[in-house]
Amino acid sequence: MNRSTIDMEDGGIYKVMLENMDVGVYFVDKSRQITFWNKGAETISGFSKEEVVGKFCHHDILSHVDEKGNKVCVVGCPLKDTTEDGIPRETVVYLHHKEGHRVRVKVKSFPLYIDNKLVGAGEVFEKLIGNEINKEFRDSCTDISCSIEELKILALYDKLTELPNRRYLESILESRFMEYKHLHLTFGILFMDIDNFRNFNNTYGHDMGDKVLKVVANTFISAIRKTDFVGRWGGEEFIGIFPMVSKIELEAIAEKIRVLTENSALREDDGGRYSITVSIGGTIINEKDDIESLIKRSDDKMYISKKMGKNRVTIE
Question: Taking the model in full, what pTM does it have?
Fold first, then answer.
């Protein structure tokens, strides 16, 4: 068996390489206490080495869940299993970023041996790109360096959430509608509204409300496919556009978004933790639809979710 043996005190060049890798790398001992945390892990998770090393990975740090909301750190943790049997594992989970949103990552656990004795395990994790919606372009473009045409593109994005704004969403809906009329390419939409959003603003102030919007936006991006599109419709309302889906598939996507949002939460410096949920309504386009009727029907279904107790999905 090819066994992994890493001594971080005597590792020299290997330690430097691990510390500076873009992917996240961390080590735990048999009790799952974190002994090493590299820069890649800091970047992907938002947690610094000082905040993590010495703590236990299952104590409200990454708080991994799967797409159904099952708490992987409690049941079925690949890292825990590897510390016990020495067998490497690989899976996809959603970690809880320090800023509150969920991030889709691929994790690989591997055993750590010293003198042929199993002493712990390591994990490598990398962010899986969903639909980043031209984020790299927007991050690199400034008023000085961008052309007029590029600035026009920037005008199609919501400044706070960095998602497409209503104007951009309307243009995408028009394109999908024409594809449906001429090519019969079906699509579904989801109308998503943050529950109790006014309470965040009224109780904690608009700064807190802005943070909630960012958490939800980033969680949505992690939850959708590369072919999907999600943007801010206005206020606390968002619309997602999903090509070539059936009603069952649209419902599954909506439930995934709902669960991942439910498992996201704002963590404040004072130790406060604020839960977030969304109510979702959705529908598939049909031959009688225009864009207005499609949006109205999904909006109506969202309000049914609200009336049924919030944090629900209603699909027609």
Answer: 0.83
